[in-house]
C-alpha cells in the first residue's frame, strides 16, 4: 500500500503504527521518506510535506487542537480571534510549545483516540466552558447546537464539569448566529419574552421581543440583495404595527451601551406590546 495515499486519506498526518496496521510496509514508508514524499514530525509520527500546519504542530508536540481553535475549525461562531489552544493528557510529561500557545490539561469528557490530533467536539465544548467567559462560551455552544452537532439530551448524559453544566442550562439551538446569542444573553435581565428566529409575515426575524418589537442584527458581511430584501421586509413589518430596530455587527460588538439604550427606550414606550 502506498504510504502517501494512506496519509492523504487520514488527513495528511498519522502514526507509523497506524499506517503499518493499515498495510503500509516499512520498506515503502522508508522509500517515501527518501523521496521526501513523507516527513517525520516526531518519533512514531509522519506527515505529508503539505499537511495542515496546525495538525502537524499538534502531532509534533504530542497534543491535540482543542478549545476555541478546534471549534473554529469545525465552523463554529467565534466572537474574536484567539491564540492557538491545545489539550494535553493530565498525566502527560512536560509539553514544550511556543509561549503564545494555550495548553489545557483538563481530563477529557470522552476518551481521546491515540491517533487524534483534533479533540472530540464534546471535549472541545467542555474545555471552552472552563476557559472562556460565559458569554463567549454560550455563543460557541449555541452555534454547535444550531448546526446540529450536539443536543441537550446528549450533553446531559455526560459527566460534565460545573461550568459546562451551567452552560447546558442556558444554551438553546435557536439562535442563527453568534450575534443573536449575544443580544439575547445581554437582554435577559429585562425579563421579557424573547423569541429568536421568530416568523413574522412569512419570514424569520432575528429576534422578537414581546409581541411587536423586532430586533434585526446585520452581520459583518450583510450587504447586497439580501440586505435590500431585509429592508423591504422591515417596511412591511412597520406598516403592520411592528416596531423594527436594526443594528450592525460593529454596534453589538463594540458599542453595546448604545444598542441597549435604544432597546430600553423602545420597551419603555411599550413597543413590545400588541
Automatic annotation (TrEMBL):
Entry's Gene Ontology molecular function annotations: endonuclease activity
A Pfam family that the UniProt record links to this protein: DUF559
Domain of life: Bacteria
Domain DUF559 stretches: 190-267
Sorted UniProt keywords: Endonuclease, Hydrolase, Nuclease
Protein name: Endonuclease domain-containing protein
Organism listed in the record: Microbacterium aurugineum
Amino acid at each position: 500500500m502506498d504510504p502517501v495515499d494512506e496519509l492523504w486519506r487520514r488527513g495528511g498526518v498519522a502514526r507509523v503504527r497506524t499506517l503499518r496496521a493499515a498495510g503500509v510496509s516499512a520498506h515503502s514508508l522508508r522509500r517515501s521518506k527518501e523521496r521526501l514524499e513523507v516527513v517525520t514530525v516526531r518519533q512514531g509520527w509522519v506527515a505529508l510535506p503539505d499537511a495542515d500546519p496546525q495538525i502537524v504542530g499538534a502531532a509534533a508536540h504530542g497534543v491535540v487542537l482543542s478549545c476555541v481553535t478546534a471549534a473554529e475549525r469545525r465552523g463554529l461562531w467565534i466572537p474574536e480571534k484567539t491564540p492557538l489552544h491545545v489539550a494535553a493528557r493530565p498525566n502527560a510529561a512536560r509539553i514544550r510549545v511556543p509561549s503564545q500557545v494555550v495548553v489545557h490539561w483538563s481530563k477529557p469528557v470522552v476518551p481521546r483516540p491515540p491517533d487524534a490530533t483534533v479533540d472530540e467536539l464534546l471535549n472541545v465544548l467542555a474545555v471552552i466552558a472552563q476557559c472562556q467567559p460565559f458569554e463567549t462560551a454560550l455563543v460557541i455552544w449555541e452555534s454547535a447546537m444550531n448546526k446540529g452537532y450536539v443536543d441537550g439530551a446528549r450533553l446531559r448524559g455526560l459527566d460534565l464539569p460545573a461550568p459546562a453544566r451551567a452552560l447546558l442550562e442556558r444554551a438553546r439551538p435557536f439562535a442563527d448566529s453568534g450575534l443573536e446569542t449575544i443580544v439575547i444573553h445581554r437582554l435577559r435581565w429585562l425579563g421579557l419574552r424573547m423569541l429568536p428566529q421568530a416568523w413574522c409575515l412569512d419570514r424569520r426575524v432575528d429576534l422578537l421581543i414581546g409581541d411587536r418589537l423586532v430586533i434585526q442584527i446585520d452581520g459583518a458581511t450583510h450587504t447586497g440583495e439580501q440586505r435590500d430584501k431585509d429592508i423591504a421586509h422591515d417596511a412591511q413589518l412597520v406598516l403592520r404595527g411592528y416596531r423594527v430596530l436594526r443594528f450592525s455587527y460593529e454596534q453589538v460588538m463594540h458599542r453595546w451601551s448604545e444598542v441597549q439604550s435604544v432597546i430600553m427606550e423602545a420597551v419603555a414606550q411599550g413597543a413590545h406590546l400588541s
